[in-house]
Design brief:
The protein is built from eleven helices and 16 strands.
């Protein structure tokens, strides 16, 4: 591994520290190296707080002059909640910038590199796939305006998410359930369909030791059947997406219980999911973990609206024609039309296996 790659790997490790806190901004890590030693480093922690480059420059002080800056993402060059990082890099006297990847934000997208080069700074972009993978959710959101959709389910070895009587607690292990709570904390929102709310009465919050960001809870409930005593109405913000027209009295009751009602176009008797994602994107929700049920996941799969799939597979066999699968919908008529995951990772979680991969959409 080259020296540049080694320092960039350090920057990637720093970027990971913002995984649970920086959304909807990207994860970014930065390292300033002067004569083979770290002069300063940093990562972006929260929206509105200094970017990774600024933290590293402050730590380096005068040692930044003539140094190399390693950063996982192209430095920003526009005013947002904070000033442009490119201005600070130029003022500090950085001699060389090595970036992991171009910022896909149309406002940047190479302009930051151009400004640095114009100021006489040597710039190299390594087009590192690991840096790009850090921000798959941000990259999708900033280029489409719609949230990154991550479908997750837990199932038995024979592909069932519950028994024929509807019993589903617990298919997965305690280790896998803790993993899912961490997934919730990584995403801006958690979404389920109304059938899951009625059958499982989920809370949809993060229940781990310590302080964690709580995701927005979203229920796709075309006809507003969410019970007023549903456990998910406690705690974090709740959005209930319904199709027009909706029951006005029930809508008012759910608002009084703490929910916000989002009225959307009717698509064959159900919420128009494309319109829902567009509306959520306009509200700044950049990523959604969809935890079921089969009808919602099937509709998202049929419409090719899923960007990542994570399946927790438990070593048990439930059996039964009436036991539900994780994904319903119309489904593919031919195998060539199946939703595919070109590359996946496999990890152990207690007795379970977790398979995760990007879709080929």
């Amino acid at each position: 591994m080259s020296t540049d790659a080694l320092w960039l790997a350090r920057a990637r490790a720093l970027a990971q520290r913002g995984r649970f806190t920086c959304s909807p901004n990207p994860m970014v890590g930065a390292v300033i190296v002067q004569r083979g030693r770290i002069a300063g480093e940093g990562f972006h922690a929260r929206p509105g707080e200094p970017h990774a480059e600024i933290i590293a420059l402050r730590a380096a002080g005068p040692a930044a002059r003539g140094a190399t800056l390693y950063v996982t993402l192209e430095p920003c060059c526009t005013y947002g909640r904070t000033p442009p990082c490119t201005d600070a890099i130029i003022r500090a006297g950085i001699a060389r910038v090595v970036a992991g990847t171009v910022d896909p934000n149309p406002r940047h997208a190479g302009r930051g590199f151009d400004l640095l080069r114009h100021a006489g700074i040597e710039v190299q972009c390594l087009d590192d796939p690991d840096c790009a993978a850090l921000n798959e959710r941000f990259n999708h959101f900033i280029t489409t305006g719609r949230p990154f959709v991550h479908a997750k389910w837990a199932m038995s070895l024979d592909g069932k998410i519950a028994t024929r009587t509807g019993a589903s607690r617990w298919i997965s292990s305690p280790e896998s359930r803790a993993y899912v709570h961490r997934l919730r904390a990584e995403h801006d929102a958690v979404m389920v369909g109304i059938a899951t709310v009625l059958a499982d009465r989920p809370q949809l919050n993060v229940r781990l030791d310590g302080t964690w960001r709580q995701p927005v809870k979203i229920v796709v409930d075309s006809r507003l059947r969410t019970p007023l005593d549903a456990p998910l109405l406690d705690g974090a913000p709740v959005i209930i997406a319904c199709a027009q027209p909706a029951d006005t009295h029930q809508a008012e009751a759910l608002r009084a219980a703490g929910a916000r009602i989002l009225h959307l176009p009717d698509a064959h008797g159900r919420v128009d999911l494309t319109a829902l994602l567009a509306a959520l994107g306009r509200e700044g929700i950049s990523s959604i973990l969809v935890e079921g049920g089969a009808t919602l996941l099937g509709a998202l799969a049929d419409q090719r609206l899923i960007q990542r799939v994570t399946a927790v597979i438990a070593p048990q066999i439930i059996g039964g024609h009436a036991a539900p699968p994780p994904v319903a919908g119309t489904g593919a008529a031919q195998l060539s039309a199946a939703l595919r995951l070109p590359a996946v990772t496999l990890t152990s979680s207690g007795p379970d296996i977790i398979i995760s991969g990007r879709t080929a959409t």
